[in-house]
Amino acid sequence: MGSALIFPLSANGVTVKVVGTPFDREIIDECIRTGRNPKVSRPFPAGISFHYFEEWKDIVPGSDFVIGGISSYGAEWFLEEVLSCMPADIPVLSVVKGLRVGGDRVLSTWPEYWEKQLAAKGLDRKVYMLGGPGIAQDIIDGEHTVTTIGGEDPGVLRMMKECLETDRLHVSRTHDVTGLEYAVAIKNAYALGPAIAIGLGRRKGAERPTGVNAQAAVFFQAAREMRRILRTVGAESDCISMGLADLFVTVEGGRTRSLGILLGEGLSMAEARERLKGVTLESISAVKSLYEGISILAKRGVMTSYGKVRMAEFPLIEHLYEVLFHGKDADFPWKRFSFDLS
Amino acid sequence: MGSALIFPLSANGVTVKVVGTPFDREIIDECIRTGRNPKVSRPFPAGISFHYFEEWKDIVPGSDFVIGGISSYGAEWFLEEVLSCMPADIPVLSVVKGLRVGGDRVLSTWPEYWEKQLAAKGLDRKVYMLGGPGIAQDIIDGEHTVTTIGGEDPGVLRMMKECLETDRLHVSRTHDVTGLEYAVAIKNAYALGPAIAIGLGRRKGAERPTGVNAQAAVFFQAAREMRRILRTVGAESDCISMGLADLFVTVEGGRTRSLGILLGEGLSMAEARERLKGVTLESISAVKSLYEGISILAKRGVMTSYGKVRMAEFPLIEHLYEVLFHGKDADFPWKRFSFDLS
């Protein structure tokens, strides 16, 4: 997503300097040599400069803002090596997707966690974030995309929006950072569901193929569980709708789709990972943190606007956890996806 | 959908008698002759009997329940010719999808309207209904489907569920008939949106194809408007999730999808209708009644839990109405699908 945003920024005449993490040396080599990131389908626009990690402290001062294009696997590193050393007056827009398990809140978004850790060091920084619904490839291809940026200061959000918005990239603004971050993080877990349903239909020796109704049945259960979680954390209504649209687009075209289909087809988790080697699969950590977080909340009997958190109300995330981490077959407990008179 | 339900009923050993409307004489002829409905992809199971409309009053007495497998275009006829003459003790399960404009409520569901009209004739009848998320073809093919039946009496709902539920058809029960009916009716209108986005991408001479992000952008706006409407009528949370899953499945595989894609490709409404001749397009009446209903509520300045109804908050339904009824090009007012700080 970090690479994708270079395209609209450049189209708007914004000067973009790309800095790799210490793990990206080879990619930066390649960018400098050829003007393209080997993982990105087309060359970057002209005029972009590429830099090794060591250079960041020289490059960042004087920037309007910094985009943190890292995955959830780099979130702790980003806190220590970048956010903690960043000049105080430069806003940061994060595209990280994920939740962190631990602490008083049990589950927290990365911006929440970062801000708290920075505050403990005496650093007052609000992190801005960018979320769905949209996949990076379509932004690169200049297709119509509605995306959302969240954060505290309306002026900073306006500045970021002006840099990003094009005739094809439509940017919403919200103060509901928690709702946005949760929506983006949990859809990565839940999108595995309908994708598995597609794979089940392709399974060798399947008695019958599964059709769109099977996907819809799992989409329904995903929507129910996502709404429960989003309302529990107080997400505003636009972010709930955004989360469900993000679920839709991730089922339609994201990397999570590929993993789900392989599992549905009957591959083991190890086999599926082998096939998708080199692809960052955020859905795996999303399922883990969500399942662990809900389990802890359920054990503690935490009250929400929906009554006590009960694991029984999250049969889909429970199933996904068993499939990903305990070798359970991916076929669903379908009957648990219907509801009855209350 | 009426024809589709014959398959699970028959699998459960329920005796099914199919009665055609006066407009279905030729189909009933064909069913008697060949055991199949020419509009349905496979023959009916053995043991089903087929009857002309005149026979219904002889057949219905003694039945456990009657399924009204009619479209919204037959809703007034169904009230006059069937519901008004039906024995009082036989429950009716309707699969009709649609809203009716008129009366004090401005927009009402068909069950609401029927019950009111019957009450005015001194007839006390509650109508039961069946809704998504699911398309008929997948039920016919025996694929996993979660569907929902709604109504007042838990015992009647249990009886209907026992007749319909199989190892592949999973039946939820709800008392929230209004939420269920609204969800089912309005998704037929809103599913045109993402389907148009698919068609836009195939449009001849399109500068660029549209990708999944464009569908997601319209899905997002559809989800926002549907949630607004469903919460306004007091739909319960399971029915809101069901409505969004029904939106998903209708975009993926329903008839509304075909119409939307043709419009997106650039065909006029007349050309699209010509291509889809013989197909019942409930989305057309769904868009019309929804647009007209919201317009009236907005003009009256009706208050809801969301504040006053304002047409400006429904840019997608407004656009679809202009496309379907005033020849507007199907390409979207994309910028209206983003939101801003409130």
In a nutshell, what does this entry contain?
Chain A is α/β, with parallel strands linked by helices and 342 residues long.
Could you please describe the fold and organization of this structure?
Two copies of one chain form a homodimer. Chain A is of the alpha/beta class and 342 residues long. In chain A, 50% of the residues lie in helices and 11% in strands. Chain A is built from 15 helices and eleven strands. The first copy, chain A, has helices at 2-11, 25-34, 56-59, 75-81, 110-120, 136-140, 154-164, 177-190, 192-202, 212-232, 237-253, 255-265, 269-275, 282-300, 315-326, and strands spanning 17-19, 49-51, 66-68, 92-94, 99-101, 107-109, 127-131, 145-150, 169-174, 303-304, 307-308. Chain A starts with a helix and ends in a 16-residue tail after the last helix. The interface between A and B is large, with 59 and 59 residues.
